[in-house]
User: Fold these one by one.
Assistant:
Number 1:
Amino acid sequence: MSSINNQKNVKEQYASAGNLNTRISIHQKYSTNKMGFGNWIFSNYKITKGMKVLELGCGTGDMWKGHEDLMKTCSKLVLSDFSEGMLENAKANLGDNSNVEYRVIDIQNIPFDDETFDVVIANMMLYHVPDMERGLSEVQRVLKNGGAFYCATFGEHGIMEFLSQVLNAYGVEDNVNKNFTLQNGKEILEPFFSDVQRLNYEDSLVVTEIDDLIEYIYSLSSMTTLSSVPKEEIREVLAKHMENGVLRVPKEYGMFCCRKGL
């Protein structure tokens, strides 16, 4: 797939918040780690008063809810996304603040001067970047010497691996984009940053309402093989894997904390 087609597909997938909200909601409802992935990510940020912060791929901005104090701590916070639709949702969610700017930005061409930001954030989005080397070079360029880059991602042994095993008879494959995962991320980041640390978020799903998982599955663009399969049939397959009214689904998420020029 060409980089142009890949970007087009990503833009279409994230054009509105509908599918994304479906995916977020199942984690909120059934995750065993009640801290929440977003709160855990924020607990690892080192953002102090007066810092300039850039988030790439902010999505709906939902993770910043409840962290308004941290937003106010920044002298400048740029929330950006590749999708105008996502930015509109972010604005609606977070409102206008004098120190917050909303921008459509492609990580491969960040429109800021060298060493502008103390912190750059790119959560759950690097695997979509067509030219990873160019994107990370841009992050490094706009990051101040000694600044931090935070990037959350998923591992290769989580939900999709589980679903591909359970739904293998329907042609479902574990074709999750593995361009940037917990397994290969450190190796990808190390050429650009002097210090790269991987942090793991321990979690799983304990699903009690199968219909919620079905909606999650059908919201995934990778599940095109199920488009002609009745949901009732998938419901029956998933129900067979339940024990005592519960379907346990593994999750593998975490993040990398990087430093420039220590």
Number 2:
Amino acid sequence: MIFAIPYQNERIAGHFTKAEEFIFTDQNTSERRANPALKGEGCRGKKSLLALLKSQHTDIVLIRNIGEKMLTKLLNANIRVFRTSGKESFETIKLSSLTELTDPSQGRPCKNKKQSGCSKKKTSSMPVTKLNTPQLIRKFTIFGVK
């Protein structure tokens, strides 16, 4: 089972798509990857982030805050989403004690109600930046996984 954790300032990032990087971990290894949502323009970056999560075969995402639209995309991709306060240590998180988000309405509402989403926006011709080679980092153990 592969977990994706938005990571910033040595803890779980406050907002999913604005994290500096993501940690991908299973019970044995962990690696960090740059967040492509920070390099792309708006929706293009978020689409790149979703593509990264899928390419890493992510099963579960741990978040503190997430928007309705991104939550919808994760749920549609069959990625389970669990909310944490961010105060828990990676070494002691118990999945069974976290809240699973199962409905898009559990995410933050879009601030710009006039915007109809990524599918209606024009995309720029900016090339997608390739990510750096992942770096192996210390191992994380997430208890309570079944």
